[in-house]
Fold each of these.
Amino acid sequence: MTRQDISGNQVKLVYLALGSNLGNRLINIELAKIKLLEKGIIILKSSSHYETLSWPNPNLPKYINIVLEVKTCLAPNNLMQVCKKIEVSLGRKQSVKNSPRECDIDILDYDQKIMDNTINLPHPRMHNRNFVLIPLFEINKKWVHPRLKRHIKRLILTLPKKNITSIKQI
């Protein structure tokens, strides 16, 4: 059976990662959630807030990260466009890769779909990131990586010990 909304468009289950390490990080994340709702993206679950060191340079401001379970009728590319517009509306500017930012929104998993073109799904580095895996595990302990076919608990256990111990729930 296919999930559908009243307009007949298929509803997809999606996981998004939100992060901020500039300005009022908590407010930035909450504003991003509000803006997602305003775009018709329904938030089903939200993880706790987690603080992590900035990567690859731990001397930069620490991040606050969350993972959201959402449902949407937007196609992957349209959802990505919405996320990028929200980032810009919250102050994100074009800059060097991995530089500090007010808001970062990544599509982690779009309805277990695998894509390798204008958008890569699932997110190509998510399985190596403590700030993604631990909040995702909090909201879906049964999640399985669509490409790797590995259970989230197993992915977390493959992280270096320092990555597991360095993340802090706030």
Note: Residues 129 and 159 are 8 Å apart (CA to CA).
Amino acid sequence: MRKIAFKTLGCRVNLFETDALASRFKAGGYEVVDSGEADIFVVNTCTVTNTSDQKCRQAIHQIRRKFPEALVVVTGCMVNHRKEELIQSGIADYVIDNERKSAIFDIVEEHFKLGHSDPEGYDRDLFSYQPAFDTFHTRSLIKIHDGCNNFCSYCIIPMVRGRSTSRPADDIYRNIREVVDHGFKEVVLTGVNMGRYKDGDTNFETLVEHIINIRGDFRVRVSSIEPDQFSNRFLELFQHEKLAPHMHICLQSGSEDTLKRMHRFYTASQFREMCQRIKTFRPDFNLTTDIIVGFPGETEATFQESCDFAREIGFSHIHTFKYSKRTGTKAAAMPDQVPETEKSRRSEIMRGISLENKLKYFEQMKGHTQRLLIERIDSKGIARGYGENYIPIQLQEEGLTKNTFIDVTLNEILNHTNEDKMVFNASKPKNFS
């Protein structure tokens, strides 16, 4: 039995694809290992920033240096961006683009049978991944969309993921039924630009409505999504017990001037109105976001507008990116590039706001009941997981079981000063029987 290990960098789309590949290899008789010695290593790369490229290179070189006899397969967005560079470096045995990533199992099988394989001979297909049953996660990621047509001035994703493409709705429903039947209690919808999903007459909100009406005891979470003018009909869906009241909606900047130069397709005012409508439907709704600091031409005043906006909306988490110049994008040629030291200073300020906001949101949720999905139980009997509002929770009770739901009351907030470790200590409700 050959051993295979996976290293995944980047977004949830990559995580979905790695889970599906790992499940396929396990079904094919391979032993999937988390780390350590393996016969095959698959590195699923990201290229959204220069830092991402650097981390990917380090990961590949470390594997090759430590396991010189292993078969190394590199795939993902960095391949689509820097394919020739990776091939010429000779650091990997196979360099496989996103469009052929789903064929990696067949490519590896062919390699061991014939001593070689030609990835270019396989068909391009973004969605032909088998349902992932044996994964690295308790949640099941469901890829519904790939590619992007927005061409924001800073972003390389349309160049490495291609144009907007939606997975057939019937395939999505079938995938979800299969993973729910297999025992998964949470499915996470993921894609590059999910809000633009379109398959015939089925748009994103229709897709979600059909998904939450699939039979079974499970919940649905929407992962990172671009800010569209969500209809009231879509927002009403969050009253359904299966649809988790949390969305990670990508703001990028709270400055009208900066948003224009980013070529974003909304204004800060429109984003604010959208958030206000969401909170009207669900006052406890958990909003998280991405913000880029140090975009070319961002002044101290326009950065302050982003800070004020982030505080006003109250995002409970802000994934802060320092602007990274990507060759081939319009922003790379813009004047008034912000020095790296200033980007770092602004990044720390924004992360501080994120911590403040998270603590305020957690204080607001004290005493509330959440439906905890138990994801793991440690050696001390402490169960950990997330509530429907994507709040991290820990609970210590007798007789708990992994991958089950339990209603809990949110009590004490632990680790106030560390956003990554902040968690609610919970208990069973007093009327629990």
Note: The first strand starts at residue 3 and ends at 8.
Amino acid sequence: MFDTGITGFMLLATSLVMLMTPGLAFFYGGLAGKQNILGIMMQSFVSMGITTIMWFICGYSLCFSGDVATHSDWLFGIIGNCNKVFMNGVTLNTPYSGNAKLPEFVFMAYQMMFAIITPALITGAFMNRVTFKGYLIFLMLWQLLVYYPFVHMIWGGGILAAHGVLDFAGGIVVHATAGFAALASVIYVGKRRNPVHKPNSIPLIALGTGLLWFGWYGFNAGSALNVNAITGLAFLNTDVAASFAAITWLIIEWSLQKKPKFVGLLTGAVAGLATVTPAAGYISLPYAALIGIASGIVCYIAVDFKNRRGWDDALDVWGVHGVGGVLGTICLGIFAAKGINPDGADGLIHGGTNFFIKQVAATAGAAVYAFIFTYIMLAVINKITPVRVADHEEDKGLDEALHGESAYDEGVL
């Protein structure tokens, strides 16, 4: 009944996406100051545990049970129902509704990896300022009230899907929501006491980038949920956009600062990966290259704008993921073509004005909702337990102050 090739490929893609969360931990850990390496890495790794538990209990069901067409979900197509809590009714022989050749268990596992990494993306913005207890509450509430609804609305047969909104692998669902939630958290939590820091390990950043780039092939190509030409197209578009964005960022920074910066090259690659994500399976290869160039330029400008505004987004989550996700979703509304993917839509340059408007409106709505709700949620959490660490804990570094550990043995350095 099931296709072993498709099932095997999706298990591989699931493993690749899982690897992205440790990759993100290394990327953020390398960028962090020496006293806050473990704190920022732990925020990624703990999501692997808590999110998996939540996804098994109710997350998968709230995202992928029911649909707006049959009025079988809750709240007018905003969130799913509880029919599949604890994977109720999903057996070894249950096929995934979107592709009968794939077991639903495998689809559940694949989507779980997206749920794990999305809130972890936010953590780079408020590095070394947030209590671990406050973060754990944030991690759970943000998924329940931000991530799950947008997954259902776009990928689970909810209201945005019913209106023709597309997002191949997470421009809105992952990057726009996480990026603008990051900006809200920065504004709420406030600036670091010592906002100037140097990355503790550029090789660690490079390792993290390599793992993210590698894992992103599963992120985007796997989102085809099949093995065909669209799978290959998404794979290649991912690599091309990342490459063009990395070199574009390198050239801009080299021309402005007179030296080619390795961290800039790596940051540009991540920006390109985030930006092409929503469009990877819906556009032709030349447009992926164009998206990469646009990403390198626009995300660099966004980071510079953030710096001039004084927003202390420590690791540029908003500028890279938030702006990248928005830009990529808008580019999808411009460049998409049914001639490339019949399951997609025609973008603005192919006469799809209505589709373009829907993409812009959905992206703007997601960004605004994620920003406002995140800000309010942090204020509520702060009534329960302090969100921001004490001054002496921040000065000491969260590795020692909160976790009683240090990344390096200073005696051998």
Note: Residues 353-384 form the longest helix (32 residues).
